[in-house]
User: What shape does this take?
Amino acid sequence: MTGRTSLAFRITALCLAVAGVAVVVAGLVSARLVLSTSREVSRQALADQADVVAGQLEVGRAGRLRAVEVLRGQGIDLVRIGPDGGLVGAAPAVRAVRDTGVRSGTAGTRLVEVRPGVALVQETATGNGPGRELLRNIAVALGFGLLVAAVAGWLLGKLVARPLRRTAEVARTMSGGRRDLRAPEHGPAEVAEVGGAVNALADALARSEARQREFLLSVSHELRTPLTAVSGFAESLADGVVSGAEVPGVGRTISEEAHRLDRLVTDLLDLARLGADDFRVDLAAVDLVDVVSSAAQVWRARCAAKGVEFRLELPPGPTVRRTDARRLRQVLDGLLENALRLTPAGKPVVLALDDVLQVRDGGPGLSDDDYRVAFRKGALHAKYERSRPVGTGVGLALVHGLVTRLGGTIEAGPAPEGGAAFTVRLPHA
Assistant: This one.
């Protein structure tokens, strides 16, 4: 955090910079306009006086001397121009007239108005004249503008930074685990938007943590069930309660529960590793007919053992996609296991391949709301654990993650057989 300046300081500095630039630019433009206007007014006044003086050259000497005195009192020098072009007057004024070529014009900072026999010369600005006064006024305006800008910037910075600081405090408190605080949603639109985004994040975190708690509870229940069975039957064997012809059956039960426990742990590990870099996916051109046919051999037998009709629908030719055959088989096994669990005896389970892969069943199906959350961890498990034979709540979430890592998409919807249909689309090779 060291080395960073506050928002209030930055806004104040920005206001100062903008005000400074505005005052300087306005001052320079104003100075140019004022000086230009002043010079033009002085030129016109000097021209009028030159006309008057030229008309009085024929009056007496006393009148000319008085005119010279009056002109000097106004800061104007008079230069007589002889018939031969000779110039008589103060040296600086003579030089100015000579510099203009004995024509009306400007010589440095002096205005020159030439009439027959006479020229008037006037200094338009001196070091202590209007120019310095104008610069002094500009400097005063600049200082006042900067002061006002500093105060306005400081107040604006405080006004904007206050809700941001409150939002930062709420975010820091949220990092400690609290979800009941809310950031202020007032102030400028952008600041209010930040507060709204933080509040939306807090709500999303609260919902996500609630779902995770529900999921952990359901997983804990699923883990406890096979562990209880394994522990109980193992104790029965150890205590001699089970003996003789009952031992093989107990052994099979322990093996089935252990296998169920292993499958659940494997699914959880795979689900946790899906987002990791070390989750290996070997993409290659794969004929889906081979993968589907291999899976069908296993699941046809398992469906027959449960009295469920198994149907296989294959295209007439190869269907090549870019995928990982091992991970795709894992997807098919997860979908078929889910379908078989819900399909009653005499109803069908369909594994179909055309342009897409489909697993359909004749089970009870799902509602429209269920299809939207079907791939969320534990969502269907929490809803149907007391009314249907549900799994661990992990399988469909794992299937969705695997399909996504394979670069494909999966959708859930109603099946023509009466149950649910899961459609997988994979990228072409």
The chain has three domains: 1-178, 220-273, 284-425. The longest helix spans residues 189-239. The domain at 284-425 is CATH 3.30.565.10 (Heat Shock Protein 90). The radius of gyration is 48 Å.
